[in-house]
Amino acid sequence: MSHPRHATPTDTEAVIAGFASACYASSATGGGGLSTPEEAADFLREYESVRAGRCSDRERLSAAGAAAWIVAFNARWQVGLQHLGLCDESTVSLVRDRGEDYLTLAW
Fold first, then answer.
1. Rounded distance, CA 50 to CA 66, Å?
2. Domain boundaries, the chain
3. Under 8 Å CB-to-CB from 63, ≥6 apart: which residues?
4. Where are the alpha helices (DSSP H) in the chain?
5. Where would you tag: which of 35, 41, 45, 70 has the fewest CB atoms within 10 A of its CB?
6. pLDDT by residue for the chain (107 residues), tens digit each?
7. How far is the C-alpha of 102 from the C-alpha of 10, rounded, in Å?
8. Are 54 and 8 in contact (CB under 8 A)?
9. Among positive and negative, which fits the CA dihedral 35, 21, 64, 60?
10. pTM
């Protein structure tokens, strides 16, 4: 029986950086104020340039997954608002059109 892997401090750092890259880019032009994949990658590149060392491949995957999670969560939230006529279709379109790009972020 395998044991579940526990998060390490670097996993947590990468996830937080990935979350931030998706929703706090200063020039976000994606739907709902979310970062496009390019903006998220730029954020992560800049983040990595000021941290203590380059992100590992595992950290990069964690950051990309976290960015994708934020964007997908926001799109799902907007779909839930459709019946009220309050849906931000640009957020939904961002995931529909660029979802795979978030999962393969490279910087």
1. 20
2. 10-103
3. 14, 15, 17, 18, 21, 44, 55, 105
4. 9-23, 37-50, 57-80, 89-103
5. 45
6. 454 555 566 678 999 999 999 987 666 676 678 999 999 999 999 999 999 889 999 999 999 999 999 999 999 999 999 899 998 898 899 889 998 999 889 99
7. 20
8. no
9. positive
10. 0.82
> How far, in Å, CA of 62 to CA of 13, rounded?
9
Token pair listed for 77:
């939230």
**63 residue type, one letter:** A
Q: Which of 30, 96, 40 is nearest to 65 (CA)?
A: 40
The crossing angle, in degrees rounded to 10, of helices 89-103 and 37-50 is 50
Tokens in use for 22? 């998706």
Give residues with Cβ within 8 angstroms of 56, minimum separation 6: 10
Long-range CB contact pairs, 35-39, < 8 A, 24+: 35/67, 36/94, 36/98, 37/67, 37/98, 37/101, 37/102, 37/105
39, amino acid identity: E
